[in-house]
Amino acid sequence: MIAFIGLLIGIAIGLMAKINIPEKFSPYMSVAILACVDSVFGAIRASLSKNFQADIFISGFFGNAALAAALAYLGDKLGIPIYIAAVIVFGGRIFDNFAIIRRLIIEKAKSRQRGE
């Protein structure tokens, strides 16, 4: 619950802040943000599965974002759009995690109805 409140506060601060990112950095930022969203969905999944570890989440959150941005930068310097591969991979992982989160929530709701 605290993580969800923190996420809402972070989104609110991000929407209210007047930060302009130069257009040349948009591919790197988009991949880094997608990596962060993937980490958040993974954390929600781990929390619902009762195996969440904060240190793994924090290292994955920042590590995935930095690695994704670095790979996008490297691909840009090599003239290869590597960021497209990152978008596909992270997008697939987000949808996989969302499907598992949805199933876990539905299973918990059904078990509550049965009184388990």
TrEMBL record:
KW Membrane (keyword) present: yes
Subcellular location as annotated: Cell membrane
The protein's name: Small basic protein
Main location: membrane
Superkingdom of origin organism: Bacteria
InterPro entries reported in the protein's UniProt record: DUF1290 (IPR009709)
Family statement drawn from the similarity comment of this UniProt entry: Belongs to the sbp family.
Topology in membrane: Multi-pass membrane protein
Keywords recorded for this protein, A-Z: Cell membrane, Membrane, Transmembrane, Transmembrane helix
Organism: Clostridium amylolyticum
Transmembrane segments: 27-44, 56-74, 80-105
Coiled coil: none
Any Gene Ontology CC annotation: plasma membrane
